[in-house]
Amino acid sequence: MTKTVAVLDYGSGNVHSACQALAAVGANVELTSDSRKILEADGALVPGVGAFATVMEKLMASGSDRLIDKRLTASRPVLGICVGMQVMFETGLEHGTQTQGLGQWPGVVRQLNAETLPHMGWTSVQPGAGSVLFEGIEDERFYFVHTYAATKFELDVMPPFVPPTLTFAHHGEDFLAAVENGPLSTTQFHPEKSGQAGLKLLSNWLKSL
């Protein structure tokens, strides 16, 4: 049965390439701001391009922040990409300005400690054991374009809850390239711009819905 993925249309850029990539791996894709469609879809994708504060402003203005929270509370899968990953954390720190995120996870998104910024290009990752997203593509490179990132995961998960699967990459310092935590999965890189490896990752996520 074809799975439906709602791509949140809240004013972020670069949504069409994500829609095309999802369709290419067999999803029935709807770019929508309709709350019923977003809540009822098998999966929801949160794109994000630009500044943390701007993305948060648009998410809240459109009510998308509440829809994301409702889906996750009901254990309905959500995938966040790039700034769509960053806003899942508690706080974003850009240009000395602190912005409140969605707070699904504790922690701060901050500027990477690297000589060259932004971090742009193809970079290898180190997937955590048992990763669903990276099954079959553990040794591939993915396309990153970012200056800010979360460098650690601060949520303590105790049994009987399943601990998150954390994937790291390195640019100046180690940072989180992806997180798989129950119904919420995120990537700092752009799978829709990462060639066949990115399509395989989206296919892996789609199969998990």
Short description:
The protein is α/β, with parallel strands linked by helices. 26% of the residues lie in helices and 33% in strands.
Written overview of the protein:
This protein has 209 residues and is of the alpha/beta class. It has a 7-stranded mixed beta sheet with strand order 2-1-3-4-13-12-11, with helices on both faces. The chain has a 4-stranded mixed beta sheet with strand order 6-5-7-10, covered by helices on one side. The longest helix has 14 residues. The chain is globular and about 45 Å long.
Order of helices and strands: EHEHEHHEHEEEEEEEEEH
Q: What is the helix fraction of residues, given as a range?
A: 25-40%
Which strand order spans the largest sheet, edge to edge or round the barrel?
Answer: 2-1-3-4-13-12-11
Low-confidence stretches: none
Based on the structure, what is the oligomeric state of the protein chains? single chain
Mean pLDDT value: 96
State the total count of DSSP E strands.
Answer: 13
User: What distance separates the N and C termini?
Assistant: 11 Å
Query: Main sheet?
Result: 7 strands, mixed
What class, by secondary structure content?
alpha/beta
Strand content: 25-35%
* Morphology: globular
Radius of gyration: 16 Å
Number of H- or I-type helical stretches: 6
Annotation keywords:
6 helices; 33% strand; 4-stranded mixed sheet; alpha/beta
